[in-house]
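Next comes the chain:
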Amino acid sequence: MKRVTGYTVLAIVLFLIGFFIARNNSDEVKTFKRTQILLGTVVEIQVRDKDEKKAEEAISKAFAEVKRIDDLFTTYNEESPVWKINISSDTIIKIDNEIYNLLVLCDSVTKISDGCFDVSLDNLTRAWGFYTDNPHLPAKTAIDSALINCGWNNVKLIGNNSIIKKKNVGFNFGAIAKGYAVDKAIGLLKSLGVQSALVNAGGEIKVIGNDWKVGIQHPRDERDIVAAIKLENNSVATSGDYEQFFEVDGIRYHHILDPESGYPARGLQSVSIINQSNTLADALATAVFVMGKEKGMKLVEALDDTEAMIIDEQGKIFYSSGFEKFLIE
């Protein structure tokens, strides 16, 4: 009979300890995350899971979905459907069903915000140079000329995935596409059985599960947050004058343009909206920013399951009636 020595027993014990540690470690929920540059910003996707392979595959598929949305709504690529809609000389245009459905939501937000949200400002955005690395203060004549070919009154949704659009009027979905992409990525992760995840597209954030703590960027200090909130199966979107801007003679000119004046909206530094739909939250953040504190907060209070944090131009913070319950002290 083979003799079992003390060293052999010790080796067996150490092996069993290692086995159980390894098994226990494999059962631990870990956070897997990656970032990519998409939609003109940094997109981060986090998945909490025990299975690394499953998590990484889910993240890859979610990024592919965000890339699909980016390709669908971009105005930089001549092959994109939106580019083709913008340059079309037809009066009645048949468009992609997904784009049409988003335009239906845009139409609703435009109406409830009295025109302060408008995705037909592509020419105005171009006049300010926000498509380039060198935005500039345009002459008033250039702004007035751009406004002629802007405005939701030049667009009509007629059903059957068709629109009537005045020639030369162009769409720009920058105020809603990131939120929409976040919603679609979260929906895909859910379909894959992911039970805990976060998608962040430049401050438009949505989560699956609970115990997610996210920060809202300080509008005057990019290294700091102005508030931390807890999200559970919810989302937040922020629009601010610090995302794209330049200064002339000490005056800040940013990319959130007032559809009526053609100039950057004034009075606020940032608006954060909490809503189950990140698409709607994204659009409302822009709408409220343009509307201003009084009218914007009135709109938020009239909407179900919607909360807002508004920071005015002096840096003073205002909360809607239910926002503070999300704050982390």
Notes: The two ends are 68 Å apart (CA to CA). The CA atoms of residues 7 and 13 lie 10 Å apart. The chain has nine helices and 15 strands. Residues 1-25 have pLDDT under 50 and may be disordered.
